[in-house]
Amino acid sequence: MEEKLFRLVEKGTSAVMVVQDLARQLEEAGFEELDFGTGWGLTENGRYYVKHHDTALFAFTIGARAEFRNAVRIGAAHTDFPCLRIKPNPDISAGGYGQVNVEVYGGAILNTWLDRPLSISGRIALQSEDVMHPEMRYLSVERPLLVIPNLAIHMNRDVNKGMELNKQTDMLPILGLLDENIKDQKLLMEFLAKELQVEPEWILDFELWVYCAEKPQYAGMQGELILSPRLDNLTSVQALLTGLIRGKRETGLNVAAFFDHEEVGSRTKQGAGSLLLLTLLEKINDSMQKTKEQTRQSLYNAFFLSVDVAHGLHPNQMGKMDLTNKPALGRGLCIKEAGSQSYATDCEAVAVVEQICRKYKIPYQKFVNRSDLAGGGTLGSIASSILPVRTVDVGAPVLAMHSAVETMGTADMDGLTKLMTAYFSF
Ligand SMILES: [Zn+2]
User: Fold this and answer.
1) Residue 292 in 3-state DSSP?
2) 83-212: CATH homologous superfamily?
3) Could you tell me which of 295, 265, 258 has the C-alpha nearest to residue 78?
4) What is the pLDDT of residues 167-212, one digit of tens each?
5) Buried b (16+ CB within 10 A) or exposed e, 275-306
6) 175 CA distance to ligand 1 centroid (A)?
7) Are residues 397 and 216 in contact, defined by beta-carbon separation less than 8 angstroms?
8) Mapping DSSP to helix (H, G, I), strand (E, B) and coil, where does residue 190 land?
């Protein structure tokens, strides 16, 4: 399973590119692309997908018998990850260096972004004849392009006591060295114009992200660890997609939802806090000639798996873990619970997932936060407040969540994929 994950990490350099790679995999698996803006003629045994504003995607399959009551299964994961977002008018000239003005996107561990090969990915809007439809272009520079160097220890002897990085002034990456014979050189804008083969003034706006350009790699004596950027949350995205493609349910409706903007709160048109998923389910039911009442009944009995990474036990910081729940890397996926409902938590729903794991011999562990630590949240609770169905949070345990490079257990990718495949198979 790791080959698919590695490929998605290398191709999925921004949410835009994650969606493009998902679409490629779905096309290869025979899924048909739909458009939210048209009517759908869906059929039994159909396999479909639809993109939403380039960074969210929904894929779904309809069983040979389109009986949806007690038979709607949904999985969701997020396509975004902490990184640096390039600001408008990005070029900075400083002491012979061309730098790029950025803001921090999501809760990145800032110092892990220093001294790493970084690159650029995202989408660019160009002027067009039709003012309501600018020309959209996509870019993923798959080679190292930028770096944010540390300061030498000789210039900050206290660096190992911890250093606070200013999000505006300390995180500006270097894009290159300026030519001293050229005035007002704008390295990034010139680079973009050249890459896209357009005039710089045709570029109206962009969503460009600085991502970590390191490749995924194995570590450990037996290759039992994976070190990679974007494990949060491409592990879940790939497991969910593979599960949907391989799933073999005879009845019902299976949905894989890939939302953007989880790292900044989900409350956007492409996020899990929108009505998008509900609208999608209604549209599917309508186009299968279900009545409103049949739709309501099917949604009441639906099941929702929110798939996102969990925290594994850190050997140097054991005290940060809960007293009795200490999930280890490589020993199975985590079911996450929180009394605060920062993870969707419902014992009946959790028991369903445990029974699936037992039936299919999939190892699992439980994760809860220490009572004196707030921990993180996922899209599970946000989505389930709009689509009030039984919801469970699951995901692979990782170390250093939101670091530029995170660590996971190799075996956990297999377990997570098995769970998603089983979920869509019986
Ligand atoms: Zn996540």
Assistant:
1) helix
2) Aminopeptidase i, Domain 2 (2.30.250.10)
3) 258
4) 999 999 999 999 999 999 999 999 999 999 999 999 999 999 999 9
5) ebbeebbbbbbeebebeeeebebbbeebbbbb
6) 28
7) no
8) helix
Q: Are the C-beta atoms of 318 and 311 separated by less than 8 Å? A: no
User: How far, in Å, from the CA of 58 to the mean position of ligand 1?
Assistant: 18
CA of 257 to the centre of ligand 1 (A): 14
Strand partners, 205: 125
Q: Where are the domains of the chain?
A: 2-81+230-423, 83-212
Q: Ligand 1 centroid to 91 CA: how many Å?
A: 31
Distance 307 CA to ligand 1 centre (A): 8
Helix (H, G, I), strand (E, B) or coil at 78: strand
CA 230 to centroid of ligand 1, rounded, Å: 9
Q: What is the DSSP letter of 359?
A: H
- For domain 2-81+230-423, give its CATH number from 2.40.50.90, 3.10.180.10, 2.60.120.10, 3.40.630.10: 3.40.630.10
Instruction: Determine the Cα–Cα distance for residues 31 and 244; give it in Å rounded to an integer.
Output: 11
pLDDT at 1 over 80: no
Q: CA–CA separation, 100 vs 192, rounded Å?
A: 13
CA of 378 to the centre of ligand 1 (A): 7
pLDDT tens for 246-303 read 999 989 999 999 999 988 888 888 888 888 899 999 999 999 999 999 998 888 889 9
Which are the contacts of 397, defined by CB distance < 8 A and separation ≥ 6?
A: 309, 310, 311, 312, 313, 327, 328, 329, 333, 334, 365, 367, 408, 409, 412
Distance 369 CA to ligand 1 centre (A): 16
| Residue 81 alpha carbon to ligand 1 centre in Å | 7
**Per the structure block, which two tokens stand in for 15?**
């949410």
How far, CA to CA in Å, does 111 sit from each of 85, 119, 123, 167, 403? 16, 17, 26, 11, 8
* Span from the CA of 82 to the centroid of ligand 1 (angstroms): 9
Give the global pTM. 0.96
